[in-house]
Amino acid sequence: MMRRAPITLILTAVLATAPAVQARDGDLDQRVQRLEQLMQSRGLMEMLTRLEQLQREVQELRGQVEVQGHTLEQLKKRQRDLYMDVDRRLQQLESGAPAAGVGAPDQPPPPSAASQPGEAGDTDAVTDAAAGVDQRQQYQQALDILREGRYMQAAEAFSGFLQAHPDSAYAANAQYWLAESYYVTRQFPRALEEFRQVVETYSDSNKVADARLKVAFIHYEMEDWQAARQALDAVIADYPGTTAARLAEERLARLNREGR
After folding, report:
1. Contact predicate 215/246, CB 8 Å
2. 187 lies in a domain?
3. Is the separation of the CB atoms in 159 and 151 below 8 Å?
């Protein structure tokens, strides 16, 4: 009986502490569950935050695509304008009509003043006439290359003509079409330099109005809005009532519409 007493006491103590152990186990389970829920909530929050960030990035990309699409359309329109302008001028040359904003089309140089028959000047007159025919042929060849759309070959041809015949009656026209060859291929800095040569070197030429208009157009293409406005205003003021002035007014109106 004495040996059974300690065993009984031990069993009684174990049974007495069992509910407390079970309670602690239950408490631990609840804490683990709460931690799991908390971790799940944080994961969801991170996923939501990331999702919102991705949505913002997609919206920004869409905005960039729209801007690039608009810019591309503007570039396409400008390119069409360039080709249509050159094509119109070449058609006018082929039909014999005057180019926009200038006087008569490219014509053969006037014959040199010949001396009376029998005088010593006859030989010089014949030589000058032959040189004029040669210049006309060389100039016409360059113009034909331009009409075919081979703009870089045309630029080389006009440049060669100007080097060979700097004082030719066709020099101003050759200089203008040399600049036009660079303009239509969007080599604007070089085209600007060549059009300015028309204005500065051949100030009496009927190509000056068109050259000044193209200088304004190049400033527009290069997004130098202030210089473009000034050049357009000058063409309108200096050549009122001409096609060059009308085209300058149209480009000025476009600048206003675009808020430039």
Report:
1. no
2. yes
3. no
Task: State how many domains the chain has.
Answer: 3
**Is 190 found in the same domain as 146?**
yes
User: pLDDT (tens digit, 9 = 90+) per residue, 42-77?
Assistant: 666 676 677 667 777 776 676 666 556 655 655 655
- Which helix (H) or strand (E) is 254 found in, with range? helix 243-257
Q: Which residues lie closer than 8 Å to 129 by C-beta, 6 or more apart?
A: 111, 112
**HSE-CB of 122 using CA atoms within 13 angstroms:** 5
Q: Which of 160, 176, 203 is the C-terminal boundary of a domain?
A: 203
| Phi-psi map region of 232: left, alpha, beta (phi>0 left; psi -120 to 50 alpha) | alpha
What is the C-alpha separation between 134 and 164, in angstroms, rounded?
Answer: 11
What pLDDT sits at residue 54? Answer: 78
250 occurs within a structural domain:
yes
Residue 25: its pLDDT value, please? 60
Distance CA 91, CA 101 (A): 15
Tokens, residue 208: 């000056």
- For the segment 109-142, what is each residue's pLDDT rounded down to a tens digit? 343 333 333 444 444 344 445 567 889 999 999 9
Domain that holds residue 249: 206-260
Specify whether 213 is located in the same domain as 199: no
Domain final residue, candidates 167, 186, 203? 203
In a domain, 234, yes or no: yes
pTM above 0.90, yes or no: no
Buried b (16+ CB within 10 A) or exposed e, 56-85: eeeeeeeeeeeeeeeeeeeeeeeeeebeeb
